[in-house]
Amino acid sequence: MDPVLNPYSPGAGRKPAALVGRDQPRSDWNVALDRVEAGRSNQPFVLYGLRGVGKTVLLSDFRRSADGREWIVAQVEAGGDKDLREALGEALHAPLADLARPSAGRRLAKALKTALSFKASYDATGTWNFGLDLSGASGGGADTGVFETDLRKLIQDLAAAAEEEGVGVAILIDEAQDLSKSELIAICAIAHASAQDDWRVLFALAGLPSLPRVLAEAKSYAERFNYEKIEALRGSVAADALTKPAAEEGVEWEESAVALLVEESAGYPYFIQQFGQDTWNEAAGPTITYDDARVGAAKGRAALDSGFFRARWDRATRGEQNYMRAMAVDGDNGSPSGEIAVRLRRAPASLGPSRANLIAKGLIYAPEHGVVAFTVPGMAAFIVRQPK
Fold first, then answer.
1. What is the topology classification, in CATH, of domain 315-384?
2. What CATH number is given for 23-229 in this structure?
3. Percent of the chain having pLDDT more than 70?
């Protein structure tokens, strides 16, 4: 069939044609937006799960919902080439520039001046001015160099400006497990303060399964945040992710074809999109058959091996790859650290650096004390297929 009309879109954070199986967190987020606009606080949202389950897609859907209400919105990714101070500052510039106008109210003018000082805290050569004379406005003071102090001042003033504008502030952070300890503490503390004092601000964090533990270790009250475990799609919901986009293009699926890809993908949204894309391109149409799906699954698996899995495998050193080979014996279920040491005939302490490096690279995580598991579903099977 025509690849131009192919409705499936594998890729990190790419919005699928049919965002299925996420009705509850999407509804909860919209209720939280309503509550903030009504002057009622809401605890931060925390989305956590394995890679490929659609956390970034859902986080971006949250952003679009807030954008649609003309909120002040910043979505950033932790662990990149910018620290959180700079990433948030730059992400907030565009929505603030859209609000800047000569008739700006007192609290908006104050927030703009505070944003300028926050910019100066990480970029002394910054040229922001929002096209306004803010010399007579109050505000500023977000340039002490202490991240929590500066961000708290910025968020508090932005929340007041948002109330003046009849909107709210949304701060969304992806890969939040990669935040530094001080950044985690600051975000938890500011989110807690905003909930206590009913600031017009809403936080959403997304990350690996280790994120709830990381947040709780940063601040104990983070245990009261709104946690949503994002998992693979099951049964008819996974089937809908395949059939609904095709139906929009006038294409049907044989039930056996759908069942095959649901099984092959194990319900993981990224894999569903990959297998769906390759099956569509293979099919003659207007009905996608079991044979089309069989070939599409094979091509999709090869694409995942050469891209999705390979990119992660190649990031590991030879020693780290050996560590993961020892883990792969247990599949995706997790491996006791002591058993890995036995398999490698090494002292457990000597494997500490490899374990730490693999966690830092986001390839494995510790679901519980003394146990490690892959962050990517299907990684164990991929490793087994690799020549030694």
1. Arc Repressor Mutant, subunit A (1.10.10)
2. 3.40.50.300
3. 100
